[in-house]
Amino acid sequence: MADILGAFEQAVLLTVIRLGEGAYGRAILRDLHTRLERDVAAGAVHATLERLESKGFVSSRLGSGTTVRDGRARRFYTVKAAGARALDDARRSLDRVWQGVGRPVKARG
Amino acid sequence: MKRNAMSPPPWAERVLVALLPAERAESDSGDLLEAYRDEQLPARGRAGADRWYIRQVALVFAHGYWFWVGGLIALFVISDVSNAYRFAPWGRSGVPTRVMPLAAMCLILGAGVRGGWRSLRMSSGLLTGAATSVLLWLFMAAWWMTTWYPFALVQQMEPYWIDAWRSSAAPGETFMHWIFWDNVGATIVSGMVLNAAGLGLGLAGGAAGAAARKLSSFR
Q1: Which of A28, A96, B103, B208 is 20 to 30 Å apart from B147, CA to CA?
Q2: What is the C-alpha separation between A14 and A12, in angstroms, rounded?
Q3: Is A101 inside any structural domain?
Q4: What is the CATH number of the domain that holds A48?
Q5: Is residue A107 part of a domain?
Q6: What is the rounded distance in angstroms from the CA atom of residue A64 to the CA atom of residue A13?
């Protein structure tokens, strides 16, 4: 069975896709912070990216550093075919679960 | 050495690098440094940015080592509860308490091995082993200070604890006073033993983890 992506893993993968060529740790962190409207720990993002890479969902390459980083290299991420498939599967599953439920969800009673 | 006004505390940077995987230490610490300088310093000032950075380092530890810290805390709670209720019917046949210290040592060693394996540094094992044991000790102190009274109410009914009180209490000392200070003493002594063990096991684990990773990369 394919790996089921968690909500945060999906958010990270979608951010990597959205940022395209500019998807490195700090940019991913900033984008997630803006879109999720909450503080996101850098450690959580880095750990998720590491896990996604070990699962073969993303690949990474080192780029050049900048002055503000004291010359430390930036690691750029790209979503691989397996990652795109996993995202599609997750979306399909969620769509099936949502079928027949209107939005916004109304509670009974 | 004077600290750069645009940089986080050097000790926090060193801890961060020790906690990160060797192959990602440069890029991940660079991300945090960039966020510190671009965003946190202008928004929060130096003290606030330093607090933010230290919190991020603590969260890196929490993400990487929650299993070991959580496991140690769970072991300790099981062990302490079974000790307090050791004469209850279910306590007598319950958890083998002698296994607990051994399991705790394995977990601290495991944290050290993980630290050494990830960072390829023996010192990371020392850091993670020491940090897990210090966190357990802090929990232990808080737990004992919180639970000593309800546990003492149970223990004062048991001949084992009554005998222990009679044989070691000062003249005229009440059971509750005795068991409270027994807890305080146990917190201090166990803290010293635990933290010494944390340093030793962390160092050994770190050396083993770093060596194992280097060996595996040769194959």
Answers
A1: B103
A2: 5
A3: no
A4: 1.10.10.10
A5: no
A6: 22
A34-91 pLDDT, tens digit per residue, is: 999 998 999 999 999 999 999 999 999 999 888 989 999 999 999 999 999 999 999 9
CB contact under 8 A, A46 and B29: no
How far is A52 from B129, CA to CA, in rounded Å?
27
Q: Using an 8 Å Cβ cutoff, are A45 and A58 in contact? A: no
> Cβ–Cβ of B64/A68 closer than 8 Å?
no
Closest CA relative to residue B95, chosen from B192, B108, B104: B104
Quote the CA–CA distance of A21 and A45 in Å, as a whole number: 18
Name the residue among B34, B62, B64 with its Cβ closest to that of A69.
B34
Q: Looking at the domain assignment, is residue A50 inside a domain?
A: yes
Q: Contacts of residue A67 in chain B, CB cutoff 8 Å?
A: none
Contact: B29, A72; criterion CB under 8 Å: yes
In a domain? residue A108: no
Q: What are the domain boundaries of chain B?
A: 64-218
**3-state SS, residue B162:** helix
Interface test with B, best of A46, A64, A77 (most B CBs within 10 A): A46
Q: Which run of H or E residues covers position A60? A: strand A58-65
Count the domains in chain A. Answer: 1
Which structural domain, as residue segments, surrounds residue A36?
Answer: 7-96
Tokens of B217: 């990369």
Contact B30 A46 (CB under 8 A): no
User: Hunting for tokens 């993980």 — which residue is that?
Assistant: B114
Using CB atoms, pick whichever of B21, B26, B64 lies closest to residue A72. Answer: B26
Span B3-32, average pLDDT: 93
Cβ neighbors of B112 (< 8 A, separation 6 or more) are B125, B126, B128, B129, B201, B202, B203, B204, B205, B206, B208, B209
CA distance A73 to chain B (A): 5
Torsion sign, CA atoms B198, B201, B203, B208 = negative
Which pLDDT band, with edges at 50, 70 and 90, does B100 fall under? confident
